Amino acid sequence: MDKTLLFKLAVAGFCFGNMMFFSLPEYFSEAALLGDSFKGLFNYLNVLLALPVFFYAATDYYRSAWLSLKNRQVNMDVPIAIGIVTLFSYSLYEIFVLGQEGYMDTLGGLLFFLLLGKLYQAKTYETLSFDRDYTAYFPVAVTRLKQDREEVVPLTKLEVGDVLLIRDQELIPADSLLLDGQAYIDYSFVTGEEVPVAKKKGELLYAGGRQKGQAITLVVQKSPSQAT
Prior knowledge:
- The protein contains five helices and nine strands; from the N terminus they run H-H-H-H-H-E-E-E-E-E-E-E-E-E.
- The protein is α+β, with helices and mostly antiparallel strands.
- It folds into two domains: 3-127; 134-223, Calcium-transporting ATPase, cytoplasmic transduction domain A, CATH 2.70.150.
- A six-stranded antiparallel beta sheet has the order 2-1-3-9-4-7, with no helix packed on it. A three-stranded antiparallel beta sheet has the order 6-5-8, with no helix packed on it.
- The model has no long low-confidence stretch (mean pLDDT 84).
- Its main location: membrane.
- It comes from Nitritalea halalkaliphila LW7.
């Protein structure tokens, strides 16, 4: 289990619980009995509690959205990141400019339940076994480069040392070294982690990863039957 995800969930849960506590009077008619000074204090405390949620717990969504837009694509994390930034910014405007309560408790709840869902997804992936049959989802053929020419060959005919051309959204069929291109590999198919991992020339790319972005060239290090 990803300890970083657990820690982010704990931070979001702690902040969300306390923000709900400070915001609770606003949901009842007795809020007027607190007076403006206490209401203002609670709003400022909510801002302080929202800072670790916004700048730490939500960082995976910012990173994933940025990589997606950088590759001229839109994934699910783009609208989520926009919503988080909008909610936080508008709440700051309401609290410091309009003198109202804002929506920091909603922001905390949003991140808490998003991360809880991500934890459940990761736990589900852990229970799945890919030891025997996950290669069944690989393509039946791949593009091999030979003397600067492209040829489509069956996956079963791949050999160590073959140079492959992997385009956007295509799976890496065998453990390979990155030969050329900008690689952003999504291993969610294998690990459940949907944030693409940037790879540099010469780094090893594992079978089952999906390229996000421009086409890349790889040198096969293991045959598909040896994929781990």
